[in-house]
Design brief:
single chain, 228 residues, Rossmann fold, 26% helix
């Protein structure tokens, strides 16, 4: 356990993802951390209850990282992780040599990502501020991507609708989208939105029983593909 620069408590863990060297990740110690003295997160619509969620490792993110680790690196392919949090999947792709851009709306994501890159002796990664409402600026997500990935993003109906609009602005004509969803319940509406954007939809269950080192998990890998 250690104390971060803003007084919140953190921990470091060694994370095993098949296909890549282990990653050392600094995360928040628990969900009780909150530090927003200038109201920056509040202005971005991040409440005190949701503030710490970016800084935790989540099972859905581990499934996403594992799938990206198994995907062959494709020359010229641009990958965007949406709502990356600690960016485990982005770090896995970056370590394998893929062209990955990590993005999130939380004001501390970039600093945690930079610290974790240093912990793993990795070169800098592309990072952009990623609000789902239309935004412009040098530091915001710009352009279109061949593969857009994310985990646990369908947490409410409004957010799911905004995510679909965001993907519509940033998916290439021929693109794939991967969402790992722990059965949040907003999947049907999001699927309809993605079909309206021209994407085919497929789902694979990711259920796993509890083990000695992990809790039980129920969720789905949602894959959307558009031929262009």
């Amino acid at each position: 356990m250690s104390t971060g620069p803003s007084g919140y408590l953190t921990k470091q863990e060694r994370i095993v993802v098949a296909g890549v060297d282990d990653l050392v990740i600094r995360s928040l110690l628990d969900r009780q951390q909150f530090f927003d003295p200038e109201g920056q997160a509040q202005r971005l619509g991040i409440s005190s209850a949701t503030w710490p969620l970016f800084g935790l490792l989540w099972p859905s993110g581990a499934y996403l990282a594992a799938r990206l680790a198994a995907r062959p690196v494709r020359l010229g392919e641009r990958i965007l992780e949406v709502g990356c949090g600690l960016g485990l999947a982005s770090l896995v792709g970056h370590r394998r040599g893929a062209d990955v851009t990590a993005s999130d709306n939380h004001p501390l994501t970039a600093s945690f990502l930079h610290h974790n890159l240093k912990l793993n002796q990795m070169a800098p990664i592309k990072y952009r501020h990623g609000p789902w409402l239309p935004a412009s600026g040098r530091r915001h997500v710009m352009g279109r991507f061949d593969l857009i990935i994310g985990s646990d993003l369908l947490y409410d109906r409004d957010a799911s609708a905004l995510l679909g609009l965001f993907i519509g602005r940033h998916a290439a004509a021929a693109a794939e989208v991967w969402i790992v969803d722990p059965d949040r319940g907003n999947r049907p509406g999001f699927n309809r939105q993605m079909r309206a954007l021209g994407f085919g939809v497929s789902e694979v269950r990711l259920d796993a029983a509890a083990g000695s080192d992990h809790l039980a998990y129920k969720g789905r890998m949602l894959t959307y593909a558009r031929a262009g």
